[in-house]
Amino acid sequence: MASLSASWLPAVLFVFVYPPLIRADKLQIVGTPPGATVEINGVPVGTTPFVKEFPGGYFHRTKTALGSRLEHPMVARITLAGYATKELMLSEGPSDSRGLNGRSHGEYFLLKANQFQVKLDIVPEVFTGSISARVARNTSVNFVSNLSLEELVALTKPAVVYLKGLQKTGTGFLVSDTGVIVTNAHLARGEESLLALLPGGVQLESKVIFIDADLDVALLKVKGAGFPHLTLADSSTVQQGETVFAVGNPGEGMLFSVTKGIVSAVGKFPGAGPGTWIQTDAPINAGNSRGPLVNSHGEVIGINTLKIVKKDTSGIGFALSSSNLLDVLHRFYPEESVLAENLPTPIQTAANVPSPTPEVGIVDISEPLGAEIMVDKIYAGNVPAHFSLAAGPHSFHVRGAGQDWIRDIVLLKDSRVSLHRP
Q: Concatenated DSSP letters for 111-153?
């Protein structure tokens, strides 16, 4: 009998010494409503309710060097037509794995839980209101370009927010009066919500409602209405050398700080990622990245995303263009809801043929600062602005900033009219 027991001893030792090799645990992702597609690290793996077995070492630290370990972050993306896409950071880490002798066995990650609940938001219920945009096509609008920096800051700063998560802080800015906030995905990732602090001191909970990992863009939502918000100007309006400034919350400085610079270049820059990039020498520091890069008209031309930190290198920062932000927002706001300039284009003639002098007049609107202007029922920017328009009848609708009024005029050739509230 003694010899028989000895022959079973290796098998018995194997069972008790190496249980992690045969033990697994289940990861569950439950969605409301069910039937949403689940991607893990970009690979479709099923639909909700999703259940899959993973090695036990993915859920808790393995006790042996032979146990399976999760050696990379694990991110789930939940999508369903008609609902805002959600992204879940399933893992936490990295942590350093060390043996009893102090020797490092490399970094590992652990799944935060074995079950995750996600509630998807219906797009029309979350993305309410409208956004404002300016494009360079078919326009004869001339915006006032001599606003002082003080006036530009007063126009822009109320729509900038300070965002605070469990371990990260940064900047965002409002793009709708119903509380939609734009920031970078690397700030919002792993958070269900962030604390949003407005310049006036009001604190609100901002819920993460969409993340585009490829463009590093996140959309948040605060409850309420009537928020100050910024107009987006697409990359076709941006000129190399124009003055720009950044508003943000640098980690080592005061909140809602402003820095100034110029547009150094515009175009593709694979080193920063996909999309169109605006290079600027406006100082962008940790914390005031993710905020708006604004032109001299108070319009957002990009979201400050990164800067080059390298010996003997300075003054090279990058903002993802507002054209790319608009591509994201168009997923939730129909094209016709994005307000764009589309006023009559000056007369064009063939080359070498003198152009006739168009019969035009000038209209100035200087107050209230920041209000939206509709010209002939088409969005044309924010106050202050002046317009060079064809002589004839025109309708002006000024709304926001506590005012809402309409003026119908007949513009005469070579005339100049200043419009005020009736």
A: ES-SEEEEEPPBHHHHS-S--BEE-STT--EE------HHHHH
Q: Judge whether 263 and 239 are in contact, CB under 8 Å.
A: yes
Whether the pLDDT of residue 11 is over 80: the answer is no
Q: Which two tokens stand for residue 396?
A: 């002006």
Range of the domain at 369: 360-418
Whether pLDDT at 13 is above 50: no
Helix (H, G, I), strand (E, B) or coil at 382: strand
User: Among the residues of 135-231, which ranges form H helices?
Assistant: 149-156, 185-188
User: Is residue 251 situated within a structural domain?
Assistant: yes
Structural domain tally of the chain? 3
pLDDT tens digit string along 110-160? 999 999 999 998 888 888 888 888 765 444 444 444 567 888 888 899 999
Q: Do residues 248 and 223 touch, judged by C-beta distance below 8 A?
A: no
- For residue 394, indicate whether it is catalytic: no
- The half-sphere exposure of 195 on its side-chain side, counting CA atoms within 13 A, is 10
- DSSP β-bridge partners for residue 194: 206
Residue where a domain stops, chosen among 119, 136, 168: 119
* Residue among 68, 121, 140, 186 flagged as catalytic: 186
Start-to-end CA distance of the chain, whole Å, equals 109
Active site annotation includes 355: no
> Per residue in 168-216, pLDDT tens?
888 999 999 899 999 999 888 888 899 999 998 999 999 999 998 888 8
Residues 377-381, mean pLDDT to the nearest whole number: 70
Q: Which of 130, 216, 235, 322 is catalytic?
A: 216
Low-confidence winner among 15-24, 99-108, 243-252 (lowest mean pLDDT): 15-24
For residue 211, give the CATH number of its domain.
2.40.10.120
Does the active-site annotation cover 186?
A: yes
Is the per-residue pLDDT at 393 higher than 50?
yes
Kindly report the backbone phi and psi dihedral angles of residue 71, in degrees, each rounded to the nearest multiple of 5, phi listed first. -105, 15
- Cα gap 13→40, rounded to integer Å: 37
Single out the residue of 240, 244, 270, 276 nearest to residue 258, CA to CA: 244
Q: Is 78 helix (H, G, I), strand (E, B) or coil?
A: strand
**Catalytic entry in 91, 176, 289, 323:** 289
Interior angle at CA 350, CA 345 and CA 351, nearest 5:
115
Mean pLDDT calculated for residue range 312-332: 84
